[in-house]
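user: Please supply your own:

assistant:
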Amino acid sequence: MFRIAISLGGNAIVPTAGNLLPAWLQDADWRKRHAALICLAQIAEGCKKVMLTQVGALVDMCVKGLADPMPKFLHPMYLPSCLSAY
């Protein structure tokens, strides 16, 4: 996802991700919620400049990930990378 984000650029991938990721974060399947945050972290690394304009919504998505009830969902190395891009 990181390479796709760099190749396409933030202006192409961020609007699409902005439509898909919030829906995935609200899905009942923990794997979709986990995939959404992994995508967010990968896109953030490749499209930092464009994503800085939407930092409030991105932080909200990461915070929702911290509150997820599924124990397998919280990978100890994942969420800090989601937030460290900012």
User: Anything to note?
Assistant: Helices lie at 2-8, 10-25, 30-46, 48-51, 55-66, 78-84.
